[in-house]
Amino acid sequence: MTKIINFKDGIQKWELEEIKKTFMDGKLVIFPTETVYGIGANALDKTAVDSIFVAKGRAQDNPLIVHISNFSMLKDLVEEPNEIEQKLIDALMPGPFTIILKKKKGVIPDNVTCGLDTVGIRFPENKIIQSIIEYTGLPIAAPSANISSKPSGTNIEDIKDEFDGKVDIIVDGGETLIGLESTVCKVIDGVPTILRPGFITKEDIEMVIGSCNVSEFVMKEAKGRVESPGMLYKHYSPNTKCILVDKELMEEVSKKYTNPIIIGSNEINRYKYFDYGDNLVNIAHNIFKLLREADKLNGEVILIEAVEPNGLGLAIMNRLIRTCEYNYIKRENENK
Ligand code: TXA
Ligand code: MG
Prior knowledge:
Layout: E1 3-6, H1 13-24, E2 29-31, E3 38-42, H2 46-56, E4 65-67, H3 71-77, H4 83-92, E5 97-102, H5 110-113, E6 118-122, H6 127-136, E7 140-141, H7 156-163, E8 169-172, E9 183-188, E10 191-196, H8 202-209, E11 213-214, E12 242-245, H9 250-254, E13 261-264, E14 272-275, H10 280-296, E15 302-305, H11 312-323, E16 328-329
Parallel strand pairs: 1-8, 2-8, 4-6, 5-9, 10-11, 12-15, 12-16, 13-14, 13-15
Antiparallel strand pairs: 2-3, 3-7, 4-7, 5-6, 9-10
Helix pairs in contact: 1-6, 10-11
């Protein structure tokens, strides 16, 4: 049985106590963050961490990130950050930002990081998860709360659809604010490198450090040895076939199908249409939820309007290109 705890109206001490006990017992708790919901276990409990992989159906070589609620936890888990890493930590944490750091030996079990000598550390800004971690005093290993290869969970209904009965507690914090997962960044040869774009953009990092690289795999399929194993897997995908389409081509492309479902900013009469919003912040907030809604219609195809891959648009396009398994109908003569 899964217990739902509603945190929207404030936190009760006995509820925090129950969550703490659940983590200490090696069980799973789903909780909100400002990005997406996470499915978490005590990061120091190897067996509990194994059960995350089982609940999600996650590949055994795709490492988990570890959530903290203060910087002394960070000191316990990782080697001392270098100067650039420390600047990023000071400027961007807490926030929707994950930094890959060198693990301290013998603290975080190997299955969290799938044998890597680094670990992704995230200090969420969301007050609910902050207070849970602070109360339990445990680092929490948590990937996004979704069955592997599906869109990440951003609201309680979608979470319940997938995980009711599979975890001990679901903490309901309403819809998540941002809607896309954190920016994953690793400092490589002295330069911050974005492995997964998010709400914290390349430009934000440049403001802190002066320079920032973006992994070449952000907008294309990764193969072979990559910095971040998550790049290799199918992601964010509904069951229905999805195609990414540039806005100008949507009308024309939609005519090729009898009954396409369209997600975008521009309604085309005749077809089932989901409005994803009129700016990048709204699109990020809505997109995963809409993908799941659209999928429930069991249509022939979902056509999704592309955005410019700049700023937050890069994070949106990084998810959508994977949703569409790299099927992207673009305007011609473009250097995108
Ligand atoms: O916003 C978020 O980051 C959410 C919330 C719950 O915090 N979490 C999340 O976790 O999105 P997950 O597991 O779905 O994505 C983490 C990504 C994966 O692509 C994984 O491969 C990568 O981070 N990653 C984790 N540890 C890594 C490491 N040591 N080196 C490189 N990449 C790593
Ligand atoms: Mg994920």
